[in-house]
Amino acid sequence: MITFYGTGPAFGLPHASPFAIKTEVLLKMSGVEYRSARADIRKAPRGKLPWIDDGGKIVTDSRMIRHHLETVHGADFSGGYDREPQGIGLAVERLCEDHLYWINVDNRWLRPENFARGPVHFFKQVPALIRPMVKARILSRLRAALYGQGTGRLEPEEKRHLVGLGVNAVADIMGDNAYLLGPRPAGADATVYGFLASLESPFFDTPYGEMVRARPNLTAYLARMRSEYFPDHSV
């Protein structure tokens, strides 16, 4: 049986990490039997979440986990769609993972009020004596990463503009579809759901959630995906 290491429920979401949400949806879509375990980031392969242990084979990175499910377990994430819509789906996935993700990290970790509401609690496992030093080091690394990636160089109104472009693009591509590409869910929906749900979470003080909620098709989509893949999750 596969053991899936994610973060567990946080911030009104099935997982704190959108990559963990994505991976669990992929596991559910695949039909492969798995069990969940709360990950210890200190033991994470490559220092990142999530990962899976498939009979002793460790697979990290949600993209490689998807590849593993396809090649080893025969999972089909195409949704039955042709190559062109699948290509569109991949492009939307990268919009979420390589663009919206970083702005959401900036919003959660580098806005003091949001950090105090959420990520600060991740440090409770750290001994109190060294906790301030560890927090300062992690935040310094995140600031450097965001500055290098580019998001950390933007003004707040510029970030809002870019998030609006991304959210509206996803909504326009989805249109009246039940799922991103049409009437059936596909692998791309695991990513889109994970990242839109994380962006929309009202747990944090952010203008980005309102941008998602302003598009009725996205609101309906999030409710539909939550009902289908996390029916026991109340928020």
Please characterize this protein's 3D structure.
The chain is of the alpha+beta class and 235 residues long. 55% of the residues lie in helices and 8% in strands. The protein is built from 9 helices and 4 strands. A 4-stranded mixed beta sheet has the order 2-1-3-4, covered by helices on one side. Strand 3 and strand 4 form a beta hairpin. Helix 1 (18-30) packs antiparallel against helix 7 (187-200), helix 3 (83-109) runs parallel beside helix 7 (187-200) and helix 7 crosses helix 9 (216-229). The two termini are 29 Å apart.
Number of helices: 9
Main sheet characteristics: 4 strands, mixed
Low-confidence stretches are none
Q: Roughly what is the average pLDDT, rounded to an integer?
A: 95
Total beta strand runs: 4
Largest beta sheet: strand ordering: 2-1-3-4
| Overall outline | globular
**CATH architect. name of the largest domain:** Up-down Bundle
CATH fold-level assignment of the largest domain: Glutathione S-transferase Yfyf (Class Pi), Chain A, domain 2
If you compute it from the alpha carbons, what radius of gyration comes out, rounded to the nearest whole angstrom? 18 Å
Which percent band covers the strand fraction? 5-15%
Distance between the termini: 29 Å
Helix coverage percent of residues? 55-70%
The overall number of domains is 2
- H-E order: EHEEEHHHHHHHH
Structural class: alpha+beta
The CATH C-level name of the largest domain is Mainly Alpha
Structural key phrases:
2 domains; 4-stranded mixed sheet; 235 residues; 4 strands; 9 helices; alpha+beta; Glutathione S-transferase Yfyf (Class Pi), Chain A, domain 2; 8% strand; Glutaredoxin; single chain; globular
